[in-house]
Amino acid sequence: MFKKINNHHIRNLHIFIFFGLLVIFYLYQFTTLIPNLDQLINQKVNLIHTPLLTQILTLWTRIFDFKIFVLWFTLFTLFLWQNKKRNEILFLGISLILGVGLKSILKILIARPRPIDHLLESTTFSFPSGHATISTLFFLGIYLSFASKIKSQRKKKLFLSGCIFGLLSISFSRIYLHMHYLSDILAGILLGTLIIFHLSSFKESLKKTKK
User: Which string of b and e fits 163-195 if b means at least 16 CB within 10 Å?
Assistant: First the structure.
């Protein structure tokens, strides 16, 4: 799936995703459409709040808190290194560094306050969602790195479904806990996707030059 996109449509995909980011920013900055939709979604999500679900999603979202993520990603990197997956380490590492850098710059430039009723402590701004950006980079990066090694199409689809579930569940947890608005999440996913596809196409071009 992703290989086909990388080989034939990557340039158009970059333009489409970048345009999507610009549209979200424009609608947020210059219209009431995005703010009103964000508030509506947060109100609807309130209807499914339960103590148990709040506890589960709090634990799940913590996995991508910066300090905890650095710890377990370091252990994951050591595992890859031991198994001689150094190209995968480089690919994931560069994508995550770019993601953290770009989302941090955008947060400072846009300076959107978080929802006033957020359930977890935070001192950073809201747009775009760092958790959505990093989880998108991580899960899609994992898929792009290892899907080609899976021969069974059924297992490959299950792997892709698991990766998509991972990034979407992390993203949903941020809305559920009122740490972000829907537009923050969409911007984070688009930013992460833009970075991962760009680096993936660059990685493929390097492979071709070496042949």
Answer: beebbbebbbbbbbbbbbbbbbbbbbbbbbbbb
